[in-house]
Amino acid sequence: MSILYEKIFVIGSNKTGTRSFHKLFSSNGLKSHHGLTDKLDDHQCFSDGIYDISTNDRYKNFHAKFPNSLFILNTRPLYNWLYSRANHCCLLRTSKMKGWPPNHKTYLSWIEWRIEYYNDVLSYFVDNKDKLIICNIEKPLWENFIMSFVSNDNIQREYNSLHNKTSINKIKNLELNLIKSEIEKAFTLTDIDKYNLLPNNLNIDLYKKHI
Asked: Is 2 inside a domain boundary?
């Protein structure tokens, strides 16, 4: 399969289906790399590698180097993202996101960072609106939406969504309850809705989206 763009970059945060994007591209015969930091000349599609403010500018660097590429802002409801991210940190006991042990201040910083990062992305592509699409990975048929932009092959397929889910059966109930409690506490300190997908940004309507 040939792609319609120079490269495909999935620029949403980890725990928003980045592994599933990698599997999606690979299953369609594309050279995909589950990461954003290397092998740029060896692959067509890239996902994962956005964690915090230290990684905010990666997509800008990729756009500068590969201006004819497609960028995908993958998202999911805020609470579900927080819970998945916190579980991931709990399972690993260490993380780039500093998510262990569970702490509402950390979760609040994640919320604030996500809003800031999304706003930055939505503002950056205003003059290149055809280079950015937005996708809620929990909405059915998201894979077909993505592939309709990636190639001229518009055949509808059934996909096995959301690979690499954190195995919560490996996490103690006490820890899961603590995570939930700290997430709830974080939401008492912000007026952002638990199920928020995107910030209240005037540029959203410029972009093709599946939300």
From this structure: no
Q: Which domain holds residue 65?
A: 8-210
- Type of residue numbered 104: H
Q: What is the number of other CB atoms lying within 10 angstroms of the CB of residue 56? A: 15
How far is 54 from 26, CA to CA, in rounded Å?
Answer: 28
Q: Is the dihedral of CA 89, 93, 99, 104 positive or negative?
A: positive
**182, part of any domain:** yes
How far apart are alpha carbons 11 and 56 in whole angstroms? 9
Residue 197 is assigned to a structural domain of this protein: yes
Burial of 47 (0-12, 13-18, 19+ CB in 10 A): buried
Q: Domain tally for the chain?
A: 1
N-terminal to C-terminal alpha carbon distance within the chain: 26
CA distance 16 to 81: 7
Mind listing the pLDDT tens digit of every residue in the chain (211 residues)? 778 999 999 999 999 999 999 999 999 999 999 988 777 999 999 999 899 999 999 999 999 999 999 999 999 999 999 999 999 999 888 777 789 999 999 999 999 999 999 999 999 999 999 999 999 999 999 999 999 999 887 555 767 665 556 566 778 899 999 999 999 999 999 999 999 999 999 999 999 999 9
Here the tokens at position 208 are 């093709």
